[in-house]
């Protein structure tokens, strides 16, 4: 088990315990983290789990896939460290990861 720190745009922090193999989105939903909705259930089709992975963990989060990139390209709040949290699988290397939410997700 590990830990994910979700930080809302207003700075409010939500720490959540994560299991290896689960997506960051599923961890957020399981822990009622505000701002991560996962409306599509993790299929990378809605963008309601968009977040920014802090630079320290970007490599450990893996590469952005084509489906994810299509959704992120349509977001006005996309940044180089944007990810759909449904497409990032929690691993030991991500223990302590900081995930920041865009201003539109509250």
What do you see in this structure?
- The structure is a single chain.
- This protein has 106 residues and is of the alpha+beta class.
- It is 14% helix and 22% strand.
- The protein has a five-stranded mixed sheet with strand order 2-1-5-3-4.
- The longest helix has 8 residues, at 66-73.
- The protein starts with a strand and ends in a 6-residue tail after the last strand.
| Largest sheet report | 5 strands, mixed
Write out the strand line-up for the largest beta sheet, numbering strands in chain order: 2-1-5-3-4
Q: Give the oligomer, counting copies of the same chain as homo and different chains as hetero.
A: single chain
Radius of gyration: 12 Å
Residue stretches low in confidence (pLDDT < 50, at least 5 long) are: none
> What string gives the helices and strands in order?
EEHEHEE
Number of strands: 5
Which term fits the overall shape? globular
Distance between the termini: 27 Å
User: What proportion of the residues form beta strands (DSSP E)?
Assistant: 15-25%
Count of the separate structural domains: 1
Structural class, by secondary structure, is alpha+beta
Overall pLDDT, averaged?
A: 94
Task: Count helical runs.
Answer: 2
CATH class: Alpha Beta
In short:
The chain is an alpha+beta fold. The chain has one domain (2-100): Beta-grasp domain (Ubiquitin-like (UB roll), Roll). Helices cover 14% and strands 22% of the residues.
